[in-house]
Amino acid sequence: MNIRKIVTFTFIVATVALAVGLSSCDRMAPMVPDTEMTPTTDVGIPIGVVVSMTGKDAEPYGLPMQRGFELAREEINMLSDANLTFITADDQSSEEGAIAAVQQLVDQGVPVILGIAISDYLEDAFPIAQENGVVAFSSVSSAAGLSSIGDYVFRTGLATNIMIPSGVMITHEELGYEKVALIYDAEDTYSTSSNEEIKKALGASGVEILAEETFQTGDTDFSMQLTNIMDVEPDALFISALSVEMTQVIIQAGAMGIPDAARLIVPDLTAKEIQDAGDAANGAIAFAGWTALSNIPGNQTFIQSYQAKYGIEAEPWAAQSYATLYILADAIAKAQSADSAAIRDALAQTMDFPTILGDFSFDPNGEAMYDAVVLTVKDGGLQLFEAAMPQMTDEMASTSQEIPIGVALALTGPFAEPYGLPMKRGLELAQEGINMLGGPSLTFVSVDPQSTLEGGIAAVQQLVDQGVPAIVGIGISTHLKEAFPIANTAGVVAFSPISSAAGLSSLGDYIFRAGLATNRVIPTGIMATQAKLGYQKVATIYDHTDAYSTSGNQEIQKALEANGVEILTMETFQTGDTDFSQQLTNIMDMAPDALFISTLAPEMVQIIVQAREIGISDAVDIIALEMSRAEVQKVGNAAEGVITFTAWSSLANTPGNQTFVQNYRAKYGIEPEPWAAQSYATLHILANAIATAQSADSAAIRDALAQTMDLPTILGNFSFDPDGEAIYDPIVLIAKDGELQTFE
């Protein structure tokens, strides 16, 4: 998951986010601000572009990049009042040329330089831009770690250490290779980086590396290396190289019969290399950041526009360059300036920006974050690599027909209806679907914590004593904080579908959560709402006795400060309070632009109702964390216009979501709640881990859960971070006409 002199220009980039939206067609729940800039003059914004227009890197990389940049520039300038202009320099496919091109553009005073495909060139050329305070943004380069050159350096291409681990995990699980060989260009930065990440990922998966062969840029004869590889009889051969050498390695491997014996896995293999390699590429597997097969909003429109303009199929390097200019234009619009430092700062804050690559963010080092894809060559073209869901072995199915899963849900008490009962319904619906697929059945051993801390502790202890390998449940963070360490100490997986106070999964390596932690969902939501609504002074109110509520308020405070928003007052109460008039009167007297509410459902409902009754006007934007449809209905008219940050929406078109919504309605006769959806996804994630582990052993399930990456769920592509916290895209919603709708 990349980019960071001052040039005095007056300019206009009106509604860049709108331009992106028009290009991307309809999109569900984008957390993207509608950024507008004030018109001034028609002076253009000069963007430096460095691409290989001549030499060996021109056709595989430079010319597609140039076409992608040009198509995006035409659209942005047409769909908005922007006047982006290009000053283009040819690096002539050489490191010296790249250095000279970047220096030339820096000397001309451009605020931003785009381009540089080859990581070798970038490593020496981009520091020149960094030292001069000029944003340097590569759309293609992907050797690991290069954005850490400096805070003005960003990249759109997925770095090898981001893309390769997921590709290796997916292909290893599906193909089952146990012994492999590697071949790579030892002189090229990208190739060596790719090979190093492949080795790390293979080691983590327990795969033996039989041979590691090298060559150097410009070599044409690989027969000796390939003969050595054939002699060790690997299950798979990983190739790390740039286009020219990559193609020749594939051709010569095919001529020697290697593809018949070992699957070729070639990161960043594209249609060009496939066409050049011919039949030798058939069956090869690629890891990529973009595919023409994707139905991501705007992607098919891009493909059609590209083909209409250039008369050829779109290349991935064109797609990444097209997306790069949209990301840059959005940052310029947010920065309200053509100053390099302002653009750098706006780029660094890019989060979940809709592009044809998917929802795009930068990590703290300026590296791109979005979902990679795995492709395979069939009939001369790239198709999606279909990895089947792991199935239990026959031995496991015959020896263990039932796998008991502990379930600790509040079925009585104040937390039953808002949380426990929806969670129960979601788990049961998922259980039915999973057990219909065959193999061992998941059975539930249920204990009611009765909506209390003591009950939560007792429930977990009881389930541990009964020997279950995994426990699902405990929705309240305050309860989880005390109860889940019991499971962790006993070596039992403890998986909460909804708890979201920051940091709780770090209590132990057996603890996982499907709910998005407050430190993930809140910064994104505040960035989107503050950019759109423009609030500058706010108040907060939260339950200081509840772990989730205090965590939520802390993350709100951090995010508001990061966005330069003044907090006028922070009012507190405690769980069980029903009268909030004093706190709300204090807030109303301060006349804030917005009010943030961080609490659990019972108190949330009363605060919103009383806020409207006491006279907090519609001019004050109310933002209530994790408000569901149930709270909207209980609050009634007072909920109109209230905004919420959440992890799931019934409006989402994530894989299987609409089917889940329909099945839930059919089974229970009500609309699905977010806690039901998260619980439904939780059991599917757990079942996938059990199948991957091929075992009902807690430690094996824990290890398989920890490796979960980009698993399709109704929440979106789901991964765990190293602490067991969920990673997927959050959503911003707003209450309108008694329902939750997407926040536009």
Jot down its keywords.
Rossmann fold; 30 strands; 4 domains; 744 residues; 43% helix; disordered N terminus; five-stranded parallel β-sheet; 25 helices; alpha/beta
Number of helical segments? 25
* Percentage of residues assigned to helices: 40-55%
CATH fold label of the largest domain: Rossmann fold
Tell me the total number of β-strands: 30
Q: How would you describe the shape?
A: globular
Instruction: Report how far apart the termini are.
Output: 25 Å
What characterizes the major β-sheet?
5 strands, parallel
Percentage of residues in DSSP E strands: 15-25%
CATH homologous superfamily grouping of the largest domain: Response regulator
CATH C-level label of the largest domain: Alpha Beta
Detail the poorly predicted runs. 1-42, 387-400
Strand order in space, largest sheet: 2-1-3-4-5
Radius of gyration: 27 Å
What's the mean pLDDT score?
88
Q: How many domains, in number, for the residues?
A: 4
What structural class do helix, strand and pairing data support? alpha/beta
The CATH architecture of the largest domain would be 3-Layer(aba) Sandwich
